[in-house]
C-alpha cells in the first residue's frame, strides 16, 4: 500500500489520480497511525515551507515519517514535500525541516530570472538510481516553485536543472527520495517516475 499523506497542504487529488492511472494500491491518509501498514510513503506539498511544515507537525506526522524512513520504507517527497526532507528553509523566516537529508532551502537569486519558476525544464541526470529508471538525460518535467534546495552532500543529487543557476531537481539516499518538479503534471516522464516508485522493493 502506498500512503499519500494529507496534512492540509498537499496537491493530493492529482497525485492520487496519477497513481490510480498506474493501477497502484495508493490511498490518501490523514492520521499518523495509518502509516503503520504503508509499504511506501508519498509526501506532497504546495505553498510556503513554514506553514506547510507546521501543518505536518501539528497533524502528528513528523515522527512517524522519520521512523518509517529509518525503518527502510521508501519515502518520496514531491515539490515542497522534497524541501521538507532537508534541514532548514529561509522562506519567510527560518524554519526547521525533517532533517532526513543534509542541506537547506533558499530563494532563487534576486538578479536571476523571475520567480516563481513555472513551466517545463530539463532534467540533467547526475547518477543512476531506481527512481530514474527509464528517464533519459534532458527529459522535461514541469516545475512550479520560488525556492530551491542546496544539498550539502553531492552524493544525494540524482538530477539537476537550470533556471539562472544549476540546482537540485531530484535527490535520493537509500530509501529517501525527493523530486522538485511535479511528476503528476509531467505527463509520461512523471508517470514513469511514479511507476518506478510503485515498483520499488519495500
Give a short overview:
With 202 residues, this protein is α/β, with parallel strands linked by helices. It has a single domain (2-199), classed as 3-Layer(aba) Sandwich (Rossmann fold).
Report strand %. 25-35%
Which range best describes the helical content: under 10%, 10-25%, 25-40%, 40-55%, 55-70% or over 70%?
10-25%
Provide the structure class. alpha/beta
CATH class: Alpha Beta
Radius of gyration: 15 Å
Number of helices: 5
Anisotropy-based shape: globular
The oligomeric state of the chains shown is single chain
CATH architecture: 3-Layer(aba) Sandwich
What separation lies between the terminal Cα atoms?
A: 10 Å
Describe what you observe in this structure.
With 202 residues, the chain is of the alpha/beta class. It has one domain (2-199): 3-Layer(aba) Sandwich (Rossmann fold), CATH 3.40.50. 23% of the residues lie in helices and 33% in strands. The protein contains five helices and 13 strands. The protein has helices at residues 12-21, 49-58, 62-70, 80-84, 187-199, and strands spanning 2-5, 26-29, 40-43, 75-78, 88-89, 95-96, 103-107, 117-125, 139-145, 147-151, 157-163, 165-173, 176-179. The strands form two sheets. The chain has a nine-stranded mixed β-sheet with strand order 2-1-3-4-13-12-11-8-9, sandwiched between helices. Strands 6-5-7-10 form a four-stranded mixed β-sheet, with helices on one face. The longest helix is centred in the last third of the chain and has 13 residues, at 187-199.
What distinguishing features does this structure have?
single chain, 202 residues, alpha/beta, Rossmann fold, nine-stranded mixed β-sheet, 5 helices, 33% strand
Amino acid at each position: 500500500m502506498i500512503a499519500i499523506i494529507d496534512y492540509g497542504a498537499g496537491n493530493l487529488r492529482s497525485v492520487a489520480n496519477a497513481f490510480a492511472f498506474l493501477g497502484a494500491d495508493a490511498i490518501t491518509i490523514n492520521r499518523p497511525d495509518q502509516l503503520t501498514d504503508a509499504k511506501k510513503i508519498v509526501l506532497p506539498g504546495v505553498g510556503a515551507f513554514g506553514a506547510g511544515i507546521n501543518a505536518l507537525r501539528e497533524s502528528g506526522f513528523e515522527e512517524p515519517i522519520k521512523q518509517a524512513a529509518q525503518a527502510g520504507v521508501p519515502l518520496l517527497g514531491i515539490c515542497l514535500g522534497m524541501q521538507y526532507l532537508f534541514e532548514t528553509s529561509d522562506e519567510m523566516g527560518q524554519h526547521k525541516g525533517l532533517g532526513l537529508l543534509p542541506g537547506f532551502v533558499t530563494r532563487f537569486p534576486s538578479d536571476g530570472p523571475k520567480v516563481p519558476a513555472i513551466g517545463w525544464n530539463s532534467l540533467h541526470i547526475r547518477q543512476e538510481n531506481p527512481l530514474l529508471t527509464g528517464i533519459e538525460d534532458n527529459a522535461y518535467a514541469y516545475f512550479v516553485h520560488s525556492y530551491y534546495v542546496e544539498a550539502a552532500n553531492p552524493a544525494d543529487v540524482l538530477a539537476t536543472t537550470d533556471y539562472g543557476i544549476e540546482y537540485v531537481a531530484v535527490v535520493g539516499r537509500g530509501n529517501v527520495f525527493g523530486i522538485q518538479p511535479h511528476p503528476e503534471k509531467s505527463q509520461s516522464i512523471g508517470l514513469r517516475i511514479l511507476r518506478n516508485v510503485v515498483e520499488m522493493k519495500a
